[in-house]
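## retry 2 of 3
previous attempt timed out at serialization; input unchanged, resubmitting
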Amino acid sequence: MHANLLQLSKKIRVGAVSYLNTKPLLYGLQHHAVSASIELIEDYPANLARALQENTIDIGLVPVAVIPKLPEAHIISDYCIGATGPVASVCIFSKVPMEQIQSLYLDYQSKTSVNLARVLLNNYWNKEVLLLEAPANFIDLIDGTTAAVIIGDRALDKFDSYPFRYDLAEAWINYSRKPFVFATWVSNKELDPSFIASFNEANALGLSNIETVIDQLTADNNSYDLHTYFTKNISYTLDTAKKEGMAQFLALL
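## retry succeeded, writing output
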């Protein structure tokens, strides 16, 4: 057995994003036998990326932009947070059209979304803007020619709140002709193949129970239609086309 292979006698620390889009995957992890062998930790993407780098978790559903920065990285699952069309929850929101935007706040919660915005500004919109590090209240600062990248549940909450909304997954697909992968399951060490098989089964279980997940969430989330979000906006299978899109994006970084 490989010297760095994590033993199944020890609970595997799994970090997952605390966004709506992960709920089907988390449902699977919580309702499959694999739950007995993992410790589940929820946080936002940038923190999980840091935890994977610092080895305080073993697996993370992390922004793909962090993969090149890891000393050791293994994509361990056939599932991801991806998009084959508009994703709805990663957008530039603005009070003016793109050509008038002069400054842009970058949501601090995800390195991939921030880097995607940079790539698209340079290569798709061919536009220079002043990029600003977002303070905690950055959404309140969207005004005039100042726009913001908003991701996750906050983007869904603000979906119809501004006259101009630019979906970054849709823009990427228009630019690259490839789907986009925002996050994927990455381990920072080799894992037992039997665990990986169980982990994949758990993800599949969650995706086969999307309607149950929606029923559990609907009472608390009325700002955006979750059936649309889980079945049309988010594409969970890490297939060949998504891997090609991911490689193209990482090359542009």
